[in-house]
Write a structure and sequence with these properties.
Strand content of chain B: under 5%
Number of strands of chain A: 2
Strand order of the largest sheet of chain A: 1-2
Shape of chain A: elongated
Order of helices and strands of chain B: HHHHHHHHHHHHHHHHHHHHHH
Helix content of chain B: over 70%
Largest interface: A-B, 58 and 65 residues
Chains: A mainly alpha, B mainly alpha, C alpha/beta
Oligomer: heterotrimer
Bound molecules: sodium ion
């Protein structure tokens, strides 16, 4: 069990690290692209395509980690005005809703991924990318988000950070 | 279903869920799932919403957002921001209210790379507020300029929020970024006059003290070593865009890269600073992108049901002048601002407001800038402006919400005056972008 | 009464979307009391590239889209953009019927009509183009706006240096000189105000518009026979009338472009022939590769013969 948890944590942080890497890589490739263009060379149009895919992969890969870090933004207004007990109950309710929604999206996202895989669908840009390879990050992201929300519920811990900590 | 029922269901659900404290992105998604069930034929509709999100997110126009955020974080974590403040502090002579001016000038410089007022406000609150309180400044004069300067961060380019607004409004990103320059400096000047008048009327608000003396030589060194390179980077990232050497997207990446280069020159570019900057910008990027994911699909569902066009047609059928319509839109933004962050608020209103502005024949750059300023005002309006709570979080212990409300007031008034100025004299916003031609 | 929801991939302001809306208007008039097409909007309602998928899954009943947008699903689409004929001709020679079969099979949609045809692409540039000794365009030194769909031809055949941009971002790019050459259809350029910066039109004309009206097949079968008959009849009429309307528009725009000082320059007849052949070969090559991967090569020869008879 201990190893399962460890391995799971490695996945969550590993995905976040990968998202961060994609962000840095995005900066480097765009700068390189400008440089090459101005030196009169032709850089690959695939850079552009991969950058676009990274834009979807970054939030999907980082979202579960952000749940753990209590970094998702929400409106404090009503929660603040409640008494402590009511607020705690309300937070549990919110958590359940979050888990349910993430599972729904993960399910349908998985369905799309599977269909795209089975039908060998391509996303047509500078190259014909197997669509499932990119789409799959949506169900992966939402499923792991659901797990992270559920873990907070299980431990009866609040997953909504005070606003100034998010800023 | 008539468009108004669709509109009521969609906005009611999104706003209602968010008000209950459901994370904003999740609130948008729940609404989308409900709308997909109702308007898009059930399960295939949910699939469509996800596919729409795939298309909306894999869009090159979003690249500047993480880049500008990264640039701002690098600026902070490499200590370049602190250099700015140190320089401003040492260069400022011994005048009344000097720390308020330091906040203003250093903050305006920081506002360049900083994309969000939340970030700028948090930074200034931690950096300047304790120092001012220690020197016996009044609470109001300590906190007010910080909230005011935070507001500059969005309109002075580069700014991630500006990029997003231009993308949502399908208007020229470069033009909207550059449109913020003149109003940004007008606003900073207004703040300066406000501080000057404040300490003139109430000298006790800023007790004089003798700051450490700085030799002229040291001052010149500071200007050349700390001030000019920093300003140069911001000017660089704006100018390469102006002269057409690259697109706004590329300018954003080059901007982030040039901050790294500068930090290396100073010897401040540590691995730790790099990782911290990545971590910080990843947090905000993931948070923002997930909200954008939800709201981009929300906007599409809104259009698909006919609610968008219905609302626009309805709003334009009123017998009001276009300028009155702008006032109404500003009113809505400020009202929503009392409980939502600018990002969510922008994503909720832009799909309606931009088509409306277009149908009224407005210059979208002008309109976009007014919208940005209104977003800022809403951010700082009592009782629930989000920035107020951020300020509360970072302000010295013992600061009450009432202190913060009162401190922010005069500075919000300045922004409002600026909005009115731009409304009746558009060249403040449009002159510079038009020069780009 | 049948209701049919519809979307169009381009913004409503674009000439092609206007033509589709014209079809909807005519169809609704002819089908009064029998059916009603409700247009739900353009890319603001469902993203450009997501619309073909939406009609396939039945979220929308009717979609107006270039065939190239879903050529990964229906590889035969490439034959339409590479074609040397127009919509009415394809209708007559059986090409449309064959395309309909292929769309049924590969995509579960009805190929209602190939409309707005007969319009071709040109290269448009802000700088005077250079020609080599053989009279072929020398694209070196030009910053070319790429489009994922045509990049293969632009980069492989022309050796162009490509910058990818949405058509909505192109105005700014031309203005600032980030891009100085783009491929675009003969018409519609002035609607986007690109003529302020474009100075040259470079012929030969190449490729062909491939705008298709698609209907979800299940939906199609659920419609009353009368609805189907009217929808199809008006679509066939629109294939012809839109061809004529757009040709007339092209004549008018051509005069206007000239008035606005846009010069037409041509590659030598030799080079032109090679250029057009190159474009066609690039498309057909890609079609072949995709068909091989997707399986079902049986229609390859027929499609090529019907759509590129010359
Ligand atoms: Na700000
Ligand atoms: Na800024």
């Amino acid at each position: 069990m201990k190893y399962v948890v460890k391995g799971y944590d490695a996945v969550i942080y590993g995905m976040a690290a990968l998202a961060a890497f994609l962000m840095a890589a995005m900066m480097v490739t765009i700068c390189l692209d400008v440089l090459l263009r101005n030196l009169g060379y032709q850089s690959s149009a695939h850079f552009f395509t991969f950058t676009e895919y990274a834009l979807l992969m970054i939030p999907c890969m980082g979202a579960p980690w952000l749940v753990r870090e209590k970094g998702h933004i929400y409106v404090e207004l009503l929660l603040m005005s409640l008494g402590e007990r009511l607020r705690a109950r309300m937070t549990v309710g919110i958590g359940l809703v979050c888990v349910a929604l993430c599972l729904v999206l993960a399910w349908y996202g998985f369905d799309i991924t599977w269909q795209n895989f089975a039908q060998n669908e391509k996303d047509v840009r500078s190259l014909d990318m197997p669509r499932w390879m990119v789409v799959m990050w949506i169900p992966v992201g939402f499923f792991l988000m659901a797990v992270e929300f559920a873990r907070y519920l299980w431990r009866r811990e609040n997953f909504l950070a005070p606003l100034q900590d998010i800023a | 279903m008539a468009w108004y029922w669709a509109a009521a269901l969609l906005f009611g659900s999104a706003l209602g869920l968010m008000m209950f404290g459901i994370p904003v992105a999740i609130g948008f998604f729940i609404t989308n799932v409900i709308a997909a069930m109702v308007f898009m034929g059930g399960a295939p509709g949910i699939t469509q919403v996800i596919n729409n999100g795939f298309g909306a997110m894999t869009n090159f126009a979003l690249v500047p957002i993480p880049m500008f955020l990264f640039m701002g974080e690098l600026f902070y974590h490499t200590g370049l921001a602190t250099r700015c403040f140190n320089a401003a502090d040492k260069l400022m002579g011994n005048i009344r209210g000097r720390l308020a001016y330091v906040t203003l000038i250093g903050g305006t410089a920081y506002a360049g790379p900083a994309g969000s007022s939340m970030g700028a406000c948090a930074l200034l609150g931690r950096l300047m507020a304790p120092e001012m309180i220690r020197r016996g400044y009044s609470k109001y004069l300590s906190l007010g300029p910080i909230m005011g300067v935070g507001g500059l961060a969005v309109i002075i380019p580069p700014s991630a929020l500006t990029v997003l607004l231009a993308t949502l409004g399908q208007t020229d990103v470069g033009a909207l970024l550059i449109a913020g320059i003149v109003p940004g400096f007008v606003l900073a000047t207004m703040y300066g006059v406000l501080i000057w008048a404040w300490v003139k009327i109430d000298p006790d608000a800023a007790p004089p003290y003798v700051p450490e003396t700085v030799s002229r030589r040291e001052k010149i060194r500071l200007i050349f070593v700390d001030v000019i390179p920093m300003v140069a980077i911001i000017v660089f990232s704006v100018v390469i865009m102006l002269v057409g050497w690259c697109t706004p997207t590329e300018a954003a990446a080059l901007g982030a890269f040039s901050v790294i280069a500068l930090a290396i020159c100073y010897g401040d570019m540590t691995w730790k600073a790099f990782v911290k900057s990545l971590d910080g910008s990843l947090r905000v990027t993931v948070m923002a992108f997930l909200v954008i994911f939800g709201s981009a699909t929300f906007a599409q569902v809104l259009a698909f049901t006919g609610a968008s066009s219905g609302l626009v047609t309805w709003a334009t059928s009123f017998q009001v002048t276009p300028l009155q319509m702008v006032f109404i839109m500003i009113g809505v933004i400020i009202f929503l601002g009392s409980f939502m962050d600018p990002l969510s608020k922008m994503l909720l209103t832009a799909p309606i407001f931009f088509p409306l502005a277009k149908s009224l024949g407005f210059d979208l750059t002008w309109f976009g800038l007014i919208m940005l300023l209104a977003l800022e005002v809403g951010y700082t309006t009592p009782p629930f402006g989000l920035l107020l709570f951020v300020m509360k979080g970072v302000a010295p212990p013992g600061t009450t919400m009432k202190d913060i409300y009162l401190a922010g007031m005069p500075f919000i008034a300045c922004v409002m005056v600026l909005i009115v100025l731009i409304m009746f004299y558009p060249p403040i916003a449009t002159w510079l972008p038009q020069r780009m031609h | 009464q049948d209701t049919i929801s519809a979307t169009h991939v381009f913004p409503a302001s674009l000439i092609y979307s206007r033509s589709f809306l014209e079809y909807v208007k005519k169809a609704n008039e002819a089908g009064k009391g029998v059916f009603n097409i409700q247009v739900r909007g353009g890319p603001e309602a469902i993203g450009m590239m997501e619309q073909p998928g939406a009609v396939r899954s039945g979220v929308v009943d009717m979609v107006y889209s270039p065939c190239a947008f879903y050529a990964a699903v229906v590889p035969e689409c490439d034959a339409i953009s590479a074609s040397s004929i127009d919509g009415p001709t394809a209708r007559k020679n059986g090409g449309t019927a064959l395309m309909n079969q292929i769309h049924n099979k590969r995509m579960g949609t009805v190929f209602l009509g190939w409309v707005d045809s007969g319009i071709r692409f040109d290269l448009w540039s802000t700088k005077e183009p250079k020609f080599d000794s053989a009279g072929a365009i020398d694209i070196k030194g030009f910053k070319v706006r790429g489009n994922p769909i045509y990049n293969a031809f632009l980069t492989n055949y022309l050796g162009a240096q490509v910058i990818n941009l949405n058509s909505s971002e192109l105005y700014t790019a031309l203005e600032r000189g980030t891009v100085d050459l783009t491929a675009w259809t003969q018409i519609g350029l002035m609607d986007l105000n690109w003529d302020r910066y474009i100075k040259y039109r470079i012929t030969p004309d190449f490729f062909s518009t491939d705008l298709i009206i698609l209907v979800n097949q299940k939906k199609w079968e659920s419609l009353s026979p009368k609805s189907r008959e009217i929808l199809q009849r008006v679509a066939i009429q629109h294939e012809t009338s839109s061809l004529h309307d757009l040709q007339a528009l092209w004549k008018k725009e051509q005069a206007e472009l000239e008035k606005r000082g846009i010069k037409t320059v041509s590659q030598s007849p030799e080079a032109s022939k090679k250029f057009v052949a190159g474009a066609r070969a690039a498309s057909l090559q890609r079609m072949k590769e995709r068909m091989e991967k997707a399986g079902g090569m049986e229609n390859y020869d027929r499609v090529v013969k019907l759509f590129t008879p010359e």
